[in-house]
Design a protein that fits this description.
Mean pLDDT: 86
Family: Belongs to the glycosyl hydrolase 13 family.
Structural class: alpha/beta
Radius of gyration: 26 Å
Number of domains: 3
Shape: globular
Keywords: Glycosidase, Hydrolase
CATH superfamily of the largest domain: Glycosidases
CATH architecture of the largest domain: Alpha-Beta Barrel
Largest sheet: 8 strands, parallel
Oligomer: single chain
CATH class of the largest domain: Alpha Beta
Strand order of the largest sheet: 11-10-9-5-2-1-13-12
Pfam families: Alpha-amylase
Number of strands: 22
Low-confidence stretches: 1-9, 539-621, 647-652
Bound molecules: alpha-D-glucopyranose
GO molecular function, one term: alpha-amylase activity
Distance between the termini: 33 Å
Number of helices: 19
Strand content: 5-15%
InterPro entries: GH, GH13_cat_dom, O16G_dom_2
Helix content: 25-40%
CATH topology of the largest domain: TIM Barrel
Length: 657
């Protein structure tokens, strides 16, 4: 029973799914024009299937002038010619479906492009489009109010034909729709049905908590967006959308909702009741910034994990979390929260474990699975993002030094996430045969899919192992998250538990080794290490992995070889209590990585899902550690299965009875 005494969350495909976000312009260019396209996504479906993803969220593919790279839609029912045709899209739906992958579209309906036919009609006052947007007359010879837009400059633009200003929370090329008009809402519901009929499995809803506008007589010179979000009307309109379109359909819905608290999640995404399935939190993406995103604040692990844990515990039993560490608007997580130098691989794997092992639906942004990093283009001319370019221009106009601006851009520009996906060490990272629309990150020769695939210890194979693990262990999907040691300055640790017993995740999010004394109820409990980020993932977790080891009789030596002679973390071979046989020989005993766990005769042959199968018996039992403390290396990450609660610790010489 949950806090509220409500039933456990019901199972749903989208709660069990791994979602992969594709920014189509930057994913793969099949046509050779330098811009990624739908045929490019199609060409990489096998890759996505091998990674283990269940759903793909496509950033906008609709017809768009591209002022904000598709987040300014001029026709909701057409594919932008840069990306291909409707036939390409329909083929993509079919081919993805054949691989067990569902498509989720980006629904961008807080605003349209100013080149949308509705806006052309509206600016001329043509009925019924006259009030499709938010028009106001000027005040005292000036703007209707002093709000600024998210991308800089005022949130209002004057149109002489109407002698009025229209509201745009983003750029002037993105006029806000007037959701108070029922006809606008009906248009949105119709276009949603249009795509659902084409077989899409849900929507990510762009800035959806901004659709309900308050009175616009606010006197502050705030960023307008911040004055608008989470108005009760937004919630009401989403309820209406739910009734009109979403109800009864088995869809993934996730709202992009900047500025929300967990309490907002209880409403927008209340379990079994809310209009949406999930909302994206932003609080965990604000701990390293100051008053604006361009101003750095020191990244503090304690603060960060408190935010992460607070969301987890507050949502437990009330709303299903959406998990992400990066997307097309954010810097690369390994550069931001980890280390993109010496410890890049370890840090990217650690962040993968954090992303995939919390409770909720994980969203992996393209390139995260190979540990792609931020980019540091020397010149502003290499940048393409409207927000970045406006920030630079306004900064220069105010006389801010070039180096100061470029340092902020290197840290926070959205283009960090938008450089082309790095497929190979070949020309343009294998992204295009033409000239890419934005330069490739020069580190592609080292960081690319081809190299990662060939390296069993790569970030990519760690993702595959984690995904495979999550898929076979219900506790890692539905089990509650129990935070541990919230005040430890470096270690993020938590349990995931259900009736089958707890799992332990321990992550040292720092470049220095640390000792983590296990909290009392856990210390000394029998546990088996299932995965860590310093050794190859055991082939056991993912039979499709190219690591040339097959589990079976006489494979202990092979395992030892795979893990560099250090076999903790995988199954031992042989019956409980026996020394495992070497391949074709005898005596290849297990060893530990760090030597801190006291070891003893394995206690059972249960597999990671708690069930003892014939295969588990054949493979033998698991190596058991009873640690009191962990010595964790730089960015070391470990995942343990623990003995169920109530399993009493045996002292030396003490019998079971
Ligand atoms: C969302 C999108 C972002 C876009 C903005 C305006 O935040 O993720 O890319 O610029 O909305 O549509």
């Amino acid at each position: 029973m949950t806090m509220e005494g409500r039933a456990r969350p019901e199972r749903a495909w989208w709660k069990e799914a791994i979602v992969y976000q594709i920014y189509p312009r930057s994913f793969f260019d099949a046509s050779g024009d330098g811009v990624g396209d739908l045929a490019g996504v199609l060409a990489k479906l096998d890759y996505l299937q091998a990674l283990g993803v269940d759903a793909v969220w496509l950033s906008p593919i609709y017809r768009s002038p591209g002022a904000d790279h598709g987040y300014d839609v001029s026709d909701y029912r057409e594919i932008d010619p840069q990306f291909g045709t409707m036939a390409d899209f329909e083929r993509l739906v079919r081919e993805a479906d054949a691989r067990g992958i569902r498509l989720v579209l980006d629904l961008v309906v807080n605003h349209t492009s100013d080149e949308h036919p509705w806006f052309y009609a509206s600016r001329q006052g043509i009925v019924p489009y006259r009030d499709f947007y938010i028009w106001r007359t000027g005040k005292n010879g000036g703007l209707p109010n002093r709000w600024r837009s998210v991308f800089g400059g005022p949130a209002w633009t004057y149109v002489p034909e109407r002698n009025a200003y229209y509201l745009h929370l983003f750029s002037p090329k993105q006029p806000d729709l007037n959701w108070d008009l029922p006809a606008v809402r009906q248009e949105v519901y119709r276009l949603m049905r249009f795509w659902l009929e084409k077989g899409v499995a849900g929507f990510r809803m762009d800035v959806i908590n901004a659709i309900g506008k308050p009175e616009l007589d606010d006197e502050t010179d705030a960023v307008g967006f911040e004055r608008v979000i989470n108005h009760p009307k937004a919630f009401r309109y989403l309820e209406e959308m739910y009734e009109a379109v979403l109800k009864g359909a088995d869809l993934l819905t996730v709202g992009e909702t900047p500025g929300v608290t967990p309490e907002h999640a209880w409403r927008y995404a209340a379990l079994g009741r809310g209009p949406l399935g999930m909302i994206f939190p932003f609080e965990h993406m604000t701990v390293d910034i100051g008053a604006t995103k361009w101003e750095p604040a020191p990244f503090d692990v304690v603060r960060w994990k408190r935010v992460l844990f607070r969301w987890q515990t507050k949502l437990e039993g009330r709303a299903w979390p959406a998990l992400y560490l990066g997307n097309h608007d954010q810097p690369r997580p390994v550069s931001r929260f980890g280390d993109d130098g010496e410890y890049r691989v370890a840090a990217a794997k650690l962040l993968a474990a954090l992303l995939l092992l919390q409770k909720g639906t994980p969203f992996v942004y393209q390139g995260e699975e190979i540990g792609m990093t931020n980019v540091r283009f020397p010149s502003i001319d290499d940048y393409r993002d409207i927000e970045t370019l406006n920030f630079y221009r306004e900064g220069r106009e105010r006389g801010v030094a070039e180096e100061t601006l470029m340092a902020a851009i290197h840290r926070m520009s959205r283009d960090n996430a938008r450089t082309p996906m790095q497929w190979s060490a070949g020309k343009n990272a294998g992204f295009t045969s033409g000239t890419p629309w934005i330069r490739v990150n020069p580190n592609y020769r080292e960081i690319n899919v081809e190299a990662a695939w060939a390296d069993p210890e790569s970030v990519l194979h760690f993702y595959r192992a984690l995904i495979a693990l999550r898929k076979r262990v219900p506790a890692l999907v539905y089990g509650r998250l129990v935070p541990l040691c919230p005040d430890d300055p470096a270690v993020i640790a938590f349990l995931r538990e259900d009736e089958a017993g707890p799992w332990l995740v321990a992550l040292n999010l720092s470049p220095v080794p640390t000792t983590w004394p296990l909290p009392r109820p856990i210390a000394g409990r029998p546990m088996v290490r299932v995965l860590d980020n310093r050794h190859r993932p055991p082939a056991y977790w993912d039979p499709a992995t190219p690591i040339p080891v097959a589990w079976g009789d006489g494979e202990a030596a092979a395992f030892a070889e795979v893990c560099g002679g250090k076999a903790a973390g995988g199954p031992e071979i042989g019956a409980p209590g026996e020394r495992p046989p070497e391949r074709g020989g005898h005596g290849a005993g297990p060893s530990t990585f760090a030597g801190e766990g006291r070891r003893e005769t394995p206690v059972g042959a249960a597999g990671p899902d708690g069930k003892q199968t014939a295969a588990d018996v054949r493979r033998g039992s698991w190596e058991v550690e009873r640690p009191e403390a962990f010595r964790l290396g730089p960015y070391e990450a470990r995942v343990y299965r623990m003995a169920p609660p109530g399993h009493r610790r045996r002292r030396p010489g003490e019998g079971d009875g």
